[in-house]
Amino acid sequence: MSNRLLAHLGKAYLGLILFFLYAPILVMAAMSFNASEFYQLPFSFSTEWYERLWKNDEILEAAWRSVWIAVVVTVIATSLGTAASIALFRYEFPGKTVLQLLLFPPIAIPWLITGTAMLIFFFGIGLDRGTPAVIIGHVALALPYVIVVVTARLATFDRTLEEAARSLGASAWKVTMAVTVPWILPGIIAGGLFAFAVSFDQFVVSYFLSEPGDSTLPVLIYTSIRKGFTPEINAVSTIIIAVSMGIMLLAARYSNFGGEQ
Amino acid sequence: MSSLSARQDRIRAFTLLSPAYLWLTVAVFLPLSAMVFFSFLSDVPFGDREWHGTLENYQEFFQTSTYATLLWKSLKLGLMVTGISVLIGFPCAYVLAKVIKGRSREALFLLVILPFWSNSLVRIFSWAIVLRGNGVLDFAANAVLPWDVRINLMFSPTAIVIGLVHSYLPYVILTSYLALQAIDDSLIEAARSLGAKRRTILTRLILPLAAPGILAGAVLIFVPVVGSFMEPRLLGGRRGTYYGTVIEDQFVAVFNWPLGAALSFILLAVVLVILGAFSPVLRRART
Question: A155 at the B interface (CB within 8 A)?
């Protein structure tokens, strides 16, 4: 086979993979505009499910809760994570490698284990389930991502800039705020967007930590699907996936992820 | 002077680091310890419940074959999903890294990775719409094929595998892509000019060099799949009982937390053994 032919086959294969990845999502989106309640084809256009969604207080409340939890998580995780990244970048101290390794359990251990462990512990110390427990859990899951993304940006930072500012008489705090933070700002923004996505899309941990009737949007969707699904869930799912893909596109712009440096 | 500044540095590092690590301790490390503690209890130590230390929860795992069988079933599911994802994903990563050139590569790569960062629950739900009887797949097959077919993959092991491969495929594409990109094109050029056949280049050059990336992707898929419960629940229906769904039940339906904790801890042990065994590979793939 000639190289040109192989290259064309390769591109066709890539197209097939993209089809596999996107087809179900597009079908779901299309079905949310289909008039039939039972997803019957042929297709006839309707916005009825979105209109119903607008009047469904349970879903709207859960959506609102998901958004503000994600905002709180983003603010906390981004500030704590950025501070930790700067320390890990700037200082040498014993035990540093251990601290870096400790970032991996929240990412690598299945959320089922982390989620059930959090449930046991928070219940044990009297915090119980509910929104505070969900926020504490989400921040812990988002922190490692923020630290990884901000650290990657810090790796491109020229240390001599800090030294120069210091030798000109700036205090450590001033150096951080006026020199370091502005340089790594794209990394901080990307880390924040990751944190938002981790929280907004998080299902497993929220599922174990939220109070029935007081749940986030993914948890509400899960319980609704198990009861038998409706096009309203379809409509809200379409909105969610559009939002989370939009956020990740933004994060990609700021973090350079995937692209060559 | 230098020891003074070293001490100052240490204090500054501590101040910057402690909030994040305190948070991780309270939200992850203490809970994991509490889970281990709970797994040795006869009942939850809340209110005026009677409880004492016991090994019963672990005995239940080892004496009845139910849980071990389910764990084995989940491990097999993990192997299957991982195998399929690697087989499908590696060629895709290869095309991205070595065939496609220029600006379109970045965009295509982003397009492949994007679904991975979107809501996994919603993506599983979207498969439920596609796979159900009278669903889109059924309709499409009947529109294309001349004879009457009935496709209803919903609530079958096949549906679970499809959903999980869809969820985790981007992982292995990502790690293989990064490994393949690190291979210098001139190396491949050199092998070719020395007369190596395409197959020899693949098996003796590209695969060995990309192996850490492929393995890292495989581990990153295997671990969460073994602990999955939402995917088998939604796509497997009543046939979707796996190790993960049994743990879920202990916490949200049966309320046998100590048994659930023991089962979770056994899963954690399995996961840690796997991560430990592959940690040299994972570390190499990261750099």
Answer: no
